[in-house]
Specification:
Elements: H1 3-13, H2 18-24, E1 39-41, E2 48-50, E3 54-56, E4 64-68
Antiparallel strand pairs: 1-2, 3-4
Bound molecules: zinc ion.
Length: about 70
């Protein structure tokens, strides 16, 4: 049962990124392979976030910072 911890986490952070979280929760952060399209794993949060939640980083391989805005 992973619903309760998920709900409490989403509530604490907000609804904006909850869509990606919900889809990725099935296989809790296994690898990038399991992330929904348009999402990236945040090493700080341990959560997947939509690319809109990331700072840009021109030096990064994917053009996004290593951690999200959260
Ligand atoms: Zn983060």
């Amino acid at each position: 049962m992973s619903f309760l911890p998920l709900y409490s986490r989403v509530t604490g952070i907000g609804v904006m990124a909850s869509r990606c979280r919900r889809e990725a929760i099935g296989e809790t952060v296994r690898e990038k392979v399991d992330l929904p399209a348009g999402c990236k794993l945040c090493r700080t949060c341990g959560e997947s976030e939509p690319h809109g939640e990331w700072h840009r980083d021109a030096t990064a391989s994917d053009g996004l910072s290593t951690h999200c805005k959260a």
